[in-house]
Every structure is written in structure tokens, then in C-alpha cells.
Design brief:
Oligomer: single chain
Radius of gyration: 23 Å
Strand content: under 5%
Shape: elongated
Helix content: over 70%
Number of strands: 2
Order of helices and strands: HEHHHHHE
Structural class: mainly alpha
Strand order of the largest sheet: 1-2
């Protein structure tokens, strides 16, 4: 009976890890500009448009427009950890075991802050967006948003 329970736990852990990996993959997919189907896009085609998008993004980065999303994720993780620790400490003071509660709160808060930061980091930096959109407009495209 104990072996079945261990196997079930191992399968559960593997499924959880697989789910976390899938969520992180979705979170890491960067948003890209969406083009209005104007005459220029119809003339050059979607393959050339994708190449121009890549060139404009590269041009923006070479021009010094860098995203600061890594720092933002780190900040949200630290903030979440601090809030979780304080909340856990308060709960522990009321119900006992403040040290364990603070540690659990910090872990939960940090994880929440990290995941929040990861998902919001998909959004491009506003300056990078404007730079890329201008570059694309100068090439004849009409960017209408990011997805």
C-alpha cells in the first residue's frame, strides 16, 4: 500500500512540474506587433513582415532601447516575499508558530510575486513598443497593437 502511495506522489509531483513548465513557457512568449493588412503588407507578404519586425526590434536594442523586465520580476518577487513573510508572521503570532508561518508566507508571497512578474514581463517595454512601431511605420506598415 505504501508503494502505491509513493508512486501516486511521484506522478503528482511530475504532473505539477510539467504544469509549471508549461505555464513558464507560455509566460516567456514575448508579445509581437500586429499589422493592419494594408497595401504594403499585401505586397510584401507576411514572411517579409516578420523579417522587418525582427530587424526593427534588433535596431531598437542596438539603439540602446532595452527592456528592464528582469529587474521588474526581481522586484515583484522580493516585494511578494516581504509581504508574505510579514503576513505569515502576523498569522503565526495569533495562532502560534510564527517562524514557520513567516517562512511559509515568504515562500508563498515570493512565488506569487515571481509568477506575477513573469506574466507581466511578456508585455514589451513601452519605449521599445513605440520605437518598433515607428520603425515599422517608416517601412510602410501600420502596427495596430501587440499580441
Amino acid at each position: 500500500m505504501k508503494i502505491v502511495g509513493m508512486l501516486t506522489n511521484k506522478v503528482f509531483i511530475k504532473l505539477c512540474l510539467l504544469l509549471i513548465a508549461a505555464i513558464l513557457c507560455m509566460a516567456c512568449a514575448a508579445k509581437r506587433p500586429v499589422m493592419y493588412p494594408n497595401d504594403h503588407l499585401s505586397k510584401v507578404g507576411s514572411e517579409a513582415a516578420e523579417k522587418d519586425i525582427e530587424e526593427c526590434i534588433k535596431f531598437a536594442k542596438e539603439s540602446g532601447v532595452e527592456s528592464e523586465r528582469a529587474e521588474e520580476v526581481a522586484g515583484k518577487t522580493a516585494t511578494g516575499s516581504a509581504i508574505g513573510a510579514v503576513t505569515g508572521l502576523a498569522v503565526g503570532a495569533v495562532f502560534g508558530g510564527s517562524g514557520r508561518s513567516a517562512a511559509a508566507g515568504a515562500l508563498g508571497g515570493g512565488t506569487g510575486g515571481f509568477m506575477s512578474g513573469i506574466f507581466s514581463s511578456r508585455d514589451p517595454d513601452p519605449l521599445l513598443k513605440r520605437f518598433v512601431e515607428r520603425c515599422l511605420r517608416e517601412r510602410g506598415y501600420e502596427p495596430v497593437g501587440w499580441r
